[in-house]
Amino acid sequence: MADSPLAVTDDGAIRTLTVNRPDKLNALDRATLEALYSAFSAAETDPAVRVVVLTGAGPKAFVAGADIAEMNGLSAVQGRDFSALGQKLMRCIERMPKPVIARINGFALGGGLELAMACHLRIAAETAKVGQPEINLGLIPGFGGTQRLLRLCGRAATLELCLLGTPITAARALQFGIVNEVVPADALDARVQTLAQQLAQAAPLALRGILDAVHIGGECALGEGLAYETAQFGLMFATEDMREGTAAFLARRPPVFQNR
Questions:
Q1: Residues contacting residue 181 through CB under 8 Å, at least 6 positions apart
Q2: Residues recognised as catalytic
Q3: What top-level class would CATH report for the domain 204-251?
C-alpha cells in the first residue's frame, strides 16, 4: 500500500525492508517502529529469509530521525514509553540470528543512526550524513545511541556526536568505525546486493553462531565470551552444513549449505 510506513520485498533469500515515509524523510513515528518490529520478527521466523537489508525510501534519507511532530506532544511517561518501544526494536534487530545490512542512502540522524547501529553491517553512500542531533531539541538519544556509539567508536567520538549534535560525513563516520564501508552513491545498490548475496550463500547456522557469540561476548567478561565461543564451535560439528563445508573445501568445489 502506498500509505504503508514500510515496504517489504523479497529477492530469493534476501528480504528488503524500506521505511516508506519519504515526505517525512522516513522519520520514525510509533506506527513505523511497530511495523519494523513486526517485520523483523517475521523475517526471523521465515525459513526462506537468510539476509535482511534495511533502507529508506527516496533519494534524501535513510531515516532522518524520530518524528518530532509526534514527540512534541508527549508527556514524560509517554516519552519514556516511546524510548522503550524504540529500544525494543533496536534489540530485536541487534539480536537477529540472520545478518542485517543497513543500506544508508542519505541522512541517518538521531533515531535513524540508532536504527543503523543496531544492524550488523552498515554500508553508506559517500553523500550520506550521520549524527545524533538530539541536543538541539533539548533531548538525549533515546533509542540506544549513547550506548551503541560508545561500543562502536569509543568515548571521545560518542561525546563529540552527542554533545555537539553536528552531523558528520560518511567518510568521517568510516574513520570513527560507525559504518563499515563508504561507496559512491551510484554504486550503493550493487555493493549492498553483492554483500547480501554473499551472506545468503553462507552457512546459516554458522552465521547465527557468529552473531550470537559476538553479541554475547560484547556484554560479558572475556572468559565467559570465550566459553560461549567454544560451546558454539563444538555445536557446529553436529551440523550437516559443517560436513558439507569441509568436504567441499577438500574437494575444491563450492559448498551448498542447507541450514541443517
A1: 122, 123, 124, 174, 191
A2: 114, 134
A3: mainly alpha
Return the number of other C-beta atoms located less than 10 Å from residue 20's C-beta. 20
Cell of 191: 555493493
Closest Cα to residue 124, out of 66, 65, 51, 175? 175
Residue closest to 128 by CA, chosen among 7, 26, 5: 26
3-state secondary structure of 83: helix
Q: Cell digits for 187?
A: 554504486
In 3-state terms, the chain is what percent helix, strand and coil (to 5)? 55, 15, 30
6-200 CATH fold = 2-enoyl-CoA Hydratase; Chain A, domain 1 (3.90.226)
Residue 79 in contact with residue 43, Cβ under 8 Å?
Answer: no
Taking the C-alpha atoms of residue 173 and residue 152, their distance in angstroms, rounded to an integer, is 11
The Cα–Cα gap between 109 and 128 comes to 10
Residues 6+ away with beta carbon under 8 Å from 152: 117, 176, 177, 178
> Which residues, 6+ apart, have CB-to-CB distance to 51 below 8 Å?
13, 14, 15, 98, 99, 100, 101, 196, 199, 200
| pLDDT, tens only, 159-218 | 999 999 999 999 999 999 999 999 999 999 999 999 999 999 999 999 999 999 999 998
171-176 long-range contacts, CB within 8 A, separation 24+: 171/126, 173/124, 173/128, 173/130, 174/124, 176/152
Q: What's the pLDDT tens digit per position in 68-103?
A: 999 998 999 999 999 999 999 999 999 999 999 999
Domain ranges of the chain: 6-200, 204-251
